Amino acid sequence: MRLTPNLAFGGQCEAAFKFYERCFGGKIVFMLTYGKSPMAEQVPPRWREKIFHATLTVGDNVMVRWRPKPLIDTVFTIPALFLRYNPRTESL
Question: Would you say 83 and 4 are in contact if contact means Cβ atoms under 8 Å apart?
């Protein structure tokens, strides 16, 4: 079983992932902005430099930030955590 945290940062994903990378000694293995994603034309210009998807590895652990659309001016204006559960992975 493996739990993968899927994090939301209210527009501060890049800074948060860089902090976690330093703090935990991890590695950002992927980071894509909305402006370079297939969603580029579907988001306001102010969100095009925000992070659409990011992946950070810390040892064998993975942290993910992914959102199909930015949660602009909605409930998630503060950081949030979602867990993805995969019961088919090998035990840690």
Answer: yes
